[in-house]
Design brief:
The chain is of the alpha/beta class and about 450 residues long. The protein has two domains: about 170 residues, Aspartate Aminotransferase, domain 1; about 250 residues, Aspartate Aminotransferase, domain 2, CATH 3.40.640. Helix 7 links the parallel strand 5 and strand 6. Helix 12 runs parallel beside helix 16. The termini are far apart.
Length: about 450
Amino acid sequence: MEFKTIIEPFKIHSVAPLQMTTQSQREKYIEDVGYNLFSLHSDNVLIDLLTDSGTGAMSRNQWAAIQHGDESYAGSPSWLMFKDAVQNLFPYKHVIPTHQGRAAEKILFTAIGGKGKIIPSNTHFDTTRANIEYTQAEGVDLVISEGKDPSSLHPFKGNMDLVALEEFINKFGVENIPVVMMTITNNSGGGQPVSLENLRAVSAICKKYGIPFFLDACRFAENAWFIREREAGQQERDVADIVREIASLADGMTMSAKKDPMGNIGGWLALNDDDLASICRNLLILTEGFPTYGGLAGRDLEALAVGLTEVISHDYLKYRITSTAYLGNALLKKGIPIVQPTGGHAIYIDAKALLPHIPPLHYPGQALAVELYKVGGIRGCEIGTVMFGRKPDGSEVASAMELVRLAIPRRTYTQSHIDYVIEVCAEVAAHSQDLRGYRIMKEPPALRHFTSEFAPL
């Protein structure tokens, strides 16, 4: 029998206090930091949904693994445990550890990018695109049309447009495309999954043209669960088996281990090409550390090895996806537009639909995110024109979608916390017509959403 209550498949072992604040205090805190939620002191945030990256709670077995970590500079047994855990799910020949995912991206694109190179994906996330553009290459998004429509109920809105991919290859030439990337799940597109059928088709196209195929696999377990739940013929498969098939379709991967591998830090680059691996390993030594630790302590490597076994638990994944949907469904019932169907790690409020009176270049997503903090102390993240509107030549264009992401840290908040989030969102929506846009007063040349300063219009 199925019960309605979502029960966490764990019990609380250690707690951290939350600091309660008033709305007037929060209004001052956010003004003092130029209305940039990234600049807030975390003690002044009640429910922190800025990101699910490295913000989750580790298990007692992971903390025990930290005590077991070996800090030998080279050839640590902790490295061997980590490597075995990675290759158990992603059996690539070379595993190159990094301190986090963007370091893996930096190494990969330094090796294969450069002026004139063009790298397609379903949708590149912010650090991926920035690392591509830093080499003077270009990142291009080829997600299916449904992936650009927040209200579309397509079950795999993260899929790549296969026709567009072949047209892209024929237009720009194989010699100018060093790799095809696939982000699973598609973070910028609302945490939407990619189907196994689409992954197989992209893999076949890449093999046809002799182009390497890489995964940005940060949320691989969530994507595999969606395949199991939504794709015909996959319902009886074990998640680990689906993950291994996904890995077999690609030539390599980048990973932020701060997401599905359940770590507070870490990442890796894995691949089969011996020559490229040699180049990347040399870059690792220059920028991160020795190849058997790559910017991580032995204790972190062991914690990640344990996390990779925990994240593929069916009980955990069912809870994870169901609890996220609980938040999304509640917002829909209150008339708050979100990206549908609900994704795995986050709910994405459609700020363009909620705030139609605010033009995209006045940043409706930023306006909504700031208001959620002022009213209820909730910190979310704008994913729209602030994040993606500035082009390498300095011009600015409106993003296809204006979203506010409420990313849910793993094993961190209870259902009562989420019920509070629902109440705050409903209160903000009730006076949404009163919200006004923002202008940017100060911004860096890249990844401006992290450090820009804003002023209300």
